[in-house]
Amino acid sequence: MKTKFSFRFLLMLFTIFMFIGCQDPSSHPPYEGPPKDHIISVAQAQEMYNAYSERRIPIIQEYEDSLLSDGSKFEPTRYAEYDLETIKQYIAFIEHEAKRANVSINTLRFYLSNYPNSTKFLNGDPVKYTRRNSIFVVPTTELGGENVGFSVEEINGNFSAVPINREISNPRENRGKTNANSTLQTNEAGFFMSNNAAAQGGGTTSLILNDGQLAPPPPTIDFGHNH
């Protein structure tokens, strides 16, 4: 009985060590110091923050205030933040999807954006921060000789990377329309229409990160006042 227990215990340990040993070492790159040429000083950050406060915030606030009839003041967004675990999970997610599609991620693009002046997006999803300035993050890869943002499409168990600005071809909607109108429809649809699985006839996974915590509120304290 004791021998059988010892054998099972050793087998369990062997399995655990084999699992640890087989993990991809590239998922934990060695520490090599700060990223070269990408770290700025606090003084530089403060100067850039102040320049945005002086050259952009008043313009945004004046325009948005002109659209409000109730006299309330619009608060321009100063930053968006994500907790570290969300960022780690996001990196793991897009690397997993890229591996399934047999492509490499080249860069992450941070797009400046605005939530619409509505309680819902066109697809019916709720708008988290109505009218607020925001950002969203798009991973890129090389497709057709260009570095483009991409999604991952699955058809019959096969995964492939597709550019997010790929034109959607729908014969019923496009019948009788000119090429110019079709192009205009694609441009107006933007990034998210290309991730419509029903329109594409397959399952498409978006890799775009959004909906972080926007500020203000709470007030910005790292670089002084919001404005």
Explain how this protein is built:
By secondary structure, this protein is α+β, with helices and mostly antiparallel strands. It has 2 domains: 38 residues, no CATH class; 134 residues, no CATH class. Helices cover 37% and strands 19% of the residues. It has 7 helices and 7 strands, in the order H-H-H-E-H-E-E-E-E-H-H-H-E-E. Strands 2, 3, 4, 5 and 6 form a 5-stranded antiparallel β-sheet that branches. A two-stranded antiparallel ribbon has the order 1-7. The N and C termini lie far apart (74 Å). The relative contact order is 0.13. About 18% of the residues have low confidence.
Radius of gyration: 24 Å
Which residues form runs of ≥5 with pLDDT under 50?
16-21, 168-201
Task: Report the biggest beta sheet as strand number plus sense, adding barrel if it closes.
Answer: 5 strands, antiparallel
Q: Give the CA-CA distance, first to last residue.
A: 74 Å
Q: Helix content range of the residues, please?
A: 25-40%
What is the mean pLDDT? 78
How many domains? The number is 2
Strand content: 15-25%
Dominant shape = globular
Keywords: Signal
Signal peptide: 1-20
Please outline what is shown here:
Keywords: Signal. The protein has 227 residues and is α+β, with helices and mostly antiparallel strands. 37% of the residues lie in helices and 19% in strands.
What is the fold's blueprint, element by element?
Blueprint: H1 2-22, H2 42-55, H3 57-66, E1 79-81, H4 84-100, E2 108-114, E3 133-143, E4 146-155, E5 158-163, H5 171-174, H6 179-193, H7 197-200, E6 203-205, E7 213-215
Antiparallel strand pairs: 1-7, 2-3, 3-4, 4-5, 4-6
